[in-house]
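[recover] target loaded
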């Protein structure tokens, strides 16, 4: 038995990818599931659909092959609460993109609590993170608080929920990277924070045990026999691992529904002065490595909007060609604040805007504006990282995720950031990271150095745009954002 199964439970789909002894993906299965938008700014997933799609894709990907170990990576922050006796969720999962707790966050900020939260968790007081979503569930779901106080309920991010289901309720666990995204976890001491739990009235009995990224997470009979779960990391941290960003100063950016850039900062957490997040990159053998993270809520989702909202493309892959044929004289700018803006603005209330429209603006210009918005937003993050870290930040950017397949977008990214962009041969780095954690723990895959040496370049995008054009275009973006923010 030398195959490793990686579960990648993402925002729009669940994937299972089988890796062979040489860490090559050999089989995969993917299922999309429904997005529920019950009110403006609300986003939910049905936990049973998450579970069913994971279960089915795992069985499809594994087929008859006997799996040595399972690694799990997942959309982070998304919040679930379930009954310990029945495993039944008390309500839909509240997704990371959901802004329903903006008011709770505003109130906590007004009461002066943000400094403590940031000091302990490395995060900002924003609805993005699990803590206020969990508080909302306890407050709003009938009887939830009483049941929580009686010890009947369990909280978890998606990894925890999946492990609970996979192990038949035997394990209530998470890993340090997922814990770091709850806004309830002290990333320096490595423990749940009593003060923040008190502040939000969250009983600590709800919280899972926190383990290293490579550890014993229990076993599952899902694939027949008993298969151990041996690796867990939030998807952006798994991508950081999969991109082998193990040295301080190395940085990756993943382009899926959203975009998340992580810069390895080594053994010490770096507090950001530029509204980035301080987070855990990974934890091995009880030793924590930290990262600075910039989180953008809308990247590939802007392309989905071109397809599903505007109907100007049938397939994401058409966008690059359309953008390439856009009128070079027009400079349409899309600020895709569909669910507010993330780093470095953290404006939950603003909504998207388009600038620079003329009578000649059409699908091509919209397509280009959507792809460019991803580059502009990444530049915002890299500038913030540079300001926090000095010159170290503007090294090469390693990219991955579905949208990294777009050459046009990656070239614009290099042009507008002024830094080369490296795309590896394996774009499924998130799943690779999870597979490596499990395979390494199982003694099948190489150690950290051996794994890093296997990273292989597909294509480097060199900077092509001249500095004057770059500065002018970026200034136009900053102006457009300034006019979009709810509190300029
Ligand atoms: N060739 C492409 N050009 C532009 N965008 C693309 C391309 N291929 C995929 N995408 C976008 O990438 C996203 C899918 O990436 P993926 O990593 O699967 O996302 P997630 O894990 O968030 O579901 C979608 O939003 C899609 O619109
Ligand atoms: O599902 P993705 O790949 O868009 O990632 C979601 C992130 O983990 C949210 O923080």
């Amino acid at each position: 038995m030398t195959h490793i199964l990686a579960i990648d439970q993402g925002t729009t789909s669940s994937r299972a990818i089988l890796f062979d002894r040489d860490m090559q993906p050999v089989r995969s299965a993917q299922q999309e599931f429904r997005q529920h938008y019950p009110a403006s700014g609300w986003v939910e997933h049905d936990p049973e659909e998450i579970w069913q799609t994971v279960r089915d894709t795992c069985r499809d990907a594994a087929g008859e092959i006997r799996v040595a170990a399972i690694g799990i990576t997942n959309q982070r922050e998304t919040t679930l609460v379930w009954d310990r006796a029945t495993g039944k969720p008390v309500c839909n999962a509240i997704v990371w993109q959901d802004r329903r707790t903006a008011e709770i966050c505003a109130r906590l900020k007004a009461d002066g609590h943000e400094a403590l939260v940031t000091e302990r968790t490395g995060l900002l007081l924003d609805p993005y993170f699990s803590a206020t979503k969990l508080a909302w569930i306890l407050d709003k779901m009938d009887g939830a608080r009483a049941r929580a106080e009686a010890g009947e309920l369990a909280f978890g991010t998606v990894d925890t929920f999946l492990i609970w289901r996979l192990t038949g309720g035997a394990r209530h666990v998470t890993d340090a990277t997922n814990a770091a995204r709850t806004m309830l976890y002290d990333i320096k001491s490595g423990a749940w924070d009593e003060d923040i739990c008190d502040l939000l009235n969250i009983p600590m009995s709800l919280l899972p045990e926190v383990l290293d990224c490579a550890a014993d997470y229990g076993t599952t009979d899902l694939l027949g026999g008993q298969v151990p779960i041996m690796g867990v990391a939030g998807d952006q941290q798994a991508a950081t691992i999969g991109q082998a960003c193990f040295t301080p100063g190395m940085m990756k950016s993943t382009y899926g529904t959203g975009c998340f850039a992580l810069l390895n900062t080594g053994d010490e957490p770096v507090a950001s002065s530029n509204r980035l997040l301080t987070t855990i990159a990974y934890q091995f053998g009880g030793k924590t490595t930290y990262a600075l993270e910039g989180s953008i809520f809308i990247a590939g989702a802007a392309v989905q909007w071109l397809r599903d909202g505007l109907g100007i493309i049938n397939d994401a892959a058409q966008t690059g060609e359309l953008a390439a044929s856009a009128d070079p004289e027009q400079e349409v700018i899309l600020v895709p604040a569909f669910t507010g803006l993330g780093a470095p603005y953290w404006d939950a209330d603003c909504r998207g805007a388009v600038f620079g429209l003329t009578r000649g603006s059409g699908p091509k210009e919209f397509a280009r504006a959507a792809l460019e918005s991803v580059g502009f937003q990444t530049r915002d993050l890299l500038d913030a990282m540079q300001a926090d870290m000095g010159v170290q930040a503007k090294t090469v950017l390693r990219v991955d995720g579905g949208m990294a397949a777009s050459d046009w977008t990656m070239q614009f990214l290099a042009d507008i950031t002024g830094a080369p962009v490296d795309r590896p041969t394996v774009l499924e780095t998130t799943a690779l990271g999870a597979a490596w954690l499990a395979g390494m723990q199982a003694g099948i895959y190489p150690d950290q150095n051996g794994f890093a040496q296997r990273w292989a370049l597909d294509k480097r995008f060199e900077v092509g745009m001249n500095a004057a054009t770059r500065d002018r275009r970026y200034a136009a973006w900053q102006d457009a954002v300034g006019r979009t923010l709810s509190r300029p």
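[recover] notes: The mean pLDDT is 94.
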